[in-house]
Amino acid sequence: MYHLLQIQPVSGKFQMRVLSAVFICLFGAVTTHAQFSADYRRAADNYFKKGDYSSAVSYYEKYLNISRDKKTSAFDPYSVSANKKSEPVPDKQLAIYQLAESWRLLKNYTNAAPLYQQLLAADSTFPLAGFHYGTCLRTLGRYADAEEAFQQFLTHHSDGGYTVAAQREIKNLQYIRQQLQKDISSFTVNALAAGRTGASYAPVAIGEEAILFTATWPDSNAAANKIHLNRLYQAGFSASAISNVAKAGMPSGALHEGAATVSADGNTIYLTKWQVIGDRKNAAIYISNKIASTDSYKWSDPVILDSVVNLPGYNAQQPFITADGKTLFYASDKPGGLGGYDLWSAVLNEQGKPVSTQNLGAIINTPYNEQAPYYHEPSATFVFASDGRTGMGGYDLFFAKGRTGEWSQPENFGYPVNSMKDDMYFLSFSKGRRVLENALFSSDRADVCCLELFHLTKKAPPKQVIGQVVSCDSKTPLAGVAVDVIDTITGTKMYSGITDADGRYSFAINQATPLNSVAALKGYYTAARPLQWSDEADADSVLSIPICMEKEVLVVDEIQVLNNVYYEFAKADIKPESYPSLDDVVALLNKRPEVRVEIGGHTDDKGSDELNMRLSQARADNVVAYLVSKGINQNRLVAKGYGATMPIAPNKKPDGSDNPEGREKNRRTEMKVLQ
Fold it and tell me: What stretch of H or E contains 177?
């Protein structure tokens, strides 16, 4: 608190001395403030030039007298004022622009956006302010405002690379709106290292339940200027969580380390090491071998790969080695590419050293940046990050099928794999063709500044089974076939329908289960077969092996034993367990209405010939009566008893003893086609 002192004048000289002292104090304060302001600006510009944007932000805000609410970090950009010292307005605007740039490059779009907005309102001479304002708005989810900002940018800029980029951003915004309409209920996306300070990214598998990754987590044991150095860490990974996190056993050094890949046998690691000199990053790929130790992960001193990969004066980074150990994918900005960072492949010899390299070409690379290559062997899927294609903004993850020199056109994974921020560094634990079934990736979607590790799963959609019924003789499709599909374990009917003109039918199942199909069509024998499909077990749809049906061939005078037709002992009464077999006869006769049949009754030779003749006739009559009761015309049926006159097996054995098996065969009911 300041107090006013009343000083009684003693003399004119004393008054003059007091006024002079006050003037000197005030002048000194102004001079000191001006000096501080100039120092702030000088420091801010110096840090900005070096790429230390965090420090630059602090000093630019001191220079511009920006105060923030510590709780919300909110501030009014229109309250930014020049310091007390008079200076040209453009110089102040340059400070505001470089402050906005610093926040944007720190990925704090919330703080960057209003600064760009202020520059645009002041009609500043920074043409890219409008473009960067649009990217900030897009990242903040203000899609309509972002599109308007890019349109405004294009009205003032009709040429140059940023014009093309702005046009692509407008396409991105349209793509974003489309993606946000998707049903994503089959996806789950969870952060793995939430709550930790610093970045975590570039996961790579070590076996089936461990990962290696890079992080800038604070290290209290490191030197003051190395606390947030990029370092390799190892961790267990299972049940959608990481555990037992520890440094990866790489020899300590002054360089940043990360974006690594490990050979299939776990004995060789390739990793990126880099440093920033001035405002330029210098990155190269190194190789290290596992040291025999009780420590699971302890590595030899990394050795830089030769100029096949690391061309002096250029960057090489983010290696990925294929499962067979013969190919190393990596990103580089060296000559021979399409622009920015391109993806390359190198052929490795038996010692793991590169012997030749080639650019992956225009199918994969663009004039912008492609980075973070990954190859999923089970699905033959190449995954990479790009900021040069239509996507959701920043870096998006794309995939292409095939192999080097035979790539399909890349496709965007879409939302929610990708977000409006940067998404890159992909790893899949899937052993099948569903690359998104169990995956890790890095994204800054949940953070104001840094990439974090995320775990993603995608539930398999119901499998669409496509079946077909064909004729056994000609293999031609059969239309109008009634098909029932039964779960053989539960007995549940999974499908019931009719085949189309191509003999096809389809249905969906949630999981693989043994199935049996029953196909019925007039003029063909009913076919019951296990439903089988090819090895595309994890595809969204599968084509089952066709079921073939035999034509019913009824030959005149052909005799067929009606199995499972039973009578009461020594009587003509039909037992109920005979009905299913007799119903098959009804079905056959309904399919072939032109056919007449004889139902013949037969007995063994026990009893008198007269008794056996009467019994066999009565049994045949009862069968005919049953068929008539089911709707078969009496005129199509003839009942005839043969008694024991037409045995098909001996009633007695050669030694004269009784032959029960033979007698059972002789006690039968037959059907003979008459015409």
Answer: helix 161-179
User: How far is residue 607's CA from residue 604's CA, in Å, rounded to a whole number?
Assistant: 9
Alpha carbons 337 and 343: distance in angstroms, whole number: 8
- Cα distance between residue 468 and residue 486, in whole Å: 16
Quick: pLDDT tens for 406-425: 999 999 999 999 998 999 99
Residues 6+ apart with CB under 8 A from 632: 586, 589, 590
**β-pairing, 327-332 with 342-348?**
antiparallel
Radius of gyration, CA atoms only, the chain: 42
Q: How far apart are CA 62 and CA 44, in angstroms?
A: 9
Looking at residue 499, its amino acid is T
CA angle in degrees (0–180, nearest 5) for 414-418-424:
125
- DSSP bridge partners of 529: 517
- Summarised one tens digit per residue, pLDDT across range 262-320 is 999 989 999 999 998 876 889 999 999 988 765 566 899 999 999 999 999 999 999 99
pLDDT of residue 535: 54
3-state SS string for 310-343:
CCCCCCEEEEEECCCCCEEEEEECCCCCCCCCEE
Q: Tokens 């993606």, residue?
A: 179
- pLDDT 10s digits, 125-149: 888 999 999 999 998 999 999 999 9
Neighbours of 657 (CB within 10 A): 8
75: Cβ contacts below 8 Å, ≥ 6 apart: 66, 67, 68, 69, 111, 114
Q: CA-based angle 265:266:271, to the nearest 5? A: 130
Q: Map tokens 């965007």 to a residue.
A: 412
Gap between the Cα atoms of 56 and 101, Å rounded: 10
H helical segments located in 519-608: 579-591
pTM for the structure as a whole: 0.65
Beta carbons of 194 and 444 less than 8 angstroms apart: no
Question: What does each C-alpha distance from 556 to 536, 588, 646 come to in angstroms?
Answer: 47, 15, 19
Task: Judge residue 592's burial from the number of C-beta atoms within 10 Å of its C-beta, 0-12 exposed, 13-18 middle, 19 or more buried.
Answer: middle
Using one digit for the tens of pLDDT, what is the confidence trace for 452-490?
999 999 988 788 889 999 999 889 999 999 999 998 888
Q: Which two tokens stand for residue 103?
A: 């926040």
Strands laid side by side in the 354-359 sheet:
316-321, 327-332, 342-348, 354-359
Q: How many whole angstroms separate alpha carbon 592 and alpha carbon 311?
A: 82
β-bridge partners, 471: 549
Answer whether 271's CB lies under 8 Å from 259's CB.
yes
CA atoms within 13 A on the CB side of 469: 31
Q: What's the token pair of residue 198?
A: 């610093």
Per this entry, what is the length of the chain?
Answer: 675
Q: What are the helix (H) ranges across 71-142?
A: 89-105, 109-121, 129-139
Q: Are 392 and 419 in contact (CB under 8 A)?
A: yes
- Reference 413, options 394, 385, 433, 387; nearest CA is 385
Place of tokens 């499972």: 564
Q: Measure Cα distances from 466 to 355, 531, 541 in Å.
A: 48, 10, 7
Q: Are 134 and 149 in contact (CB under 8 A)?
A: yes
Helices 579-591 and 609-629, packing angle to 10 deg: 60
d(CA 457, CA 47): 42
